[in-house]
Design a protein that fits this description.
One of its GO terms (cellular component) is cytoplasm. Keywords: Cytoplasm, Methyltransferase, Nucleus, S-adenosyl-L-methionine, Transferase. One of its GO terms (biological process) is methylation. The protein is α/β, with parallel strands linked by helices and 210 residues long. It has one domain (5-209): Rossmann fold, CATH 3.40.50.150. It is built from seven helices and nine strands. Helix 4 (86-99) links the parallel strand 2 (78-83) and strand 3 (105-108). Helix 1 packs parallel to helix 4 (86-99). It is globular.
């Protein structure tokens, strides 16, 4: 991928500072990455596979925290969201407060250098964070490797990793996560047709840690 400001912390700090101001002004929670259907898709998969409601869930790059709120509304009780942008965590705290979901844990954390207490999760969810890391102007390939290493540290053996991406194909993601993970399922995503070829604008996969 071509390097992009979308891969920099400065971009996301500025973006979430704007969203935080907007929320304070008019109560708008901001953008939902990949739309509401992406959250529904994740929750449906968890429900279909009867994932216990007390399973520990980590939302990597939680942004405004709306996914965690929806998980809490669906009955999940052990929820943690992290983001390296303090503004994002401030915004997600305000969204949590507005929705009355006091049991959602939120913290400023860089997933590429996670703290020791970030470990033992049953489920990790990524909607766009791996995409953003892949656009980092400084050593994106090295940071992708750090990401996979961090995922191995924070996710329990046999734990589930649900990733939604608009930059990577299924085959590319299988290659990126080949060490330590096996594919369980590809989730259906919206399809588009261009020049007679049908493709997916978004890829959603479920991996299991070996």
């Amino acid at each position: 991928f071509s390097p992009s400001v979308l891969g920099t912390r400065e971009h996301w700090d500025a973006a979430y500072e704007r969203e935080l101001q907007t929320f304070q002004d008019i109560g708008d929670t901001g953008e939902i990455w990949f739309g509401e259907e992406s959250m529904v898709r994740i929750i449906r998969w968890l429900e279909k596979h009867k994932v216990p409601l007390d399973s520990s869930v980590l939302d990597i790059g939680t942004g405004n925290g709306v996914l965690l709120v929806e998980l809490a509304k669906s009955g999940y009780v052990n929820l943690t969201g992290i983001d390296y942008s303090p503004s994002a965590i401030q915004l997600s705290e305000k969204v949590r407060e507005k929705e009355g979901m006091s049991n959602i844990k939120l913290k400023v954390e860089d997933f590429l250098a996670p703290s020791a207490e970030l470990s033992g999760f049953d489920i990790c969810i990524d909607k766009g964070t791996f995409d953003a890391i892949s656009l980092d102007p400084s050593d994106a390939a090295g940071k992708r490797k750090l990401y996979v290493g961090s995922l191995c540290r924070v996710l329990k053996p046999e734990g589930f990793f649900l990733i939604t991406s608009c930059n990577w194909t299924k085959e590319e993601l299988l290659n990126e996560f080949r060490e330590g993970f096996e594919i369980l399922e590809e989730l259906p995503t919206p399809k588009f047709c261009f020049g007679g070829r049908i493709g997916n604008s978004v890829t959603a996969l479920v991996f299991q840690r070996k």
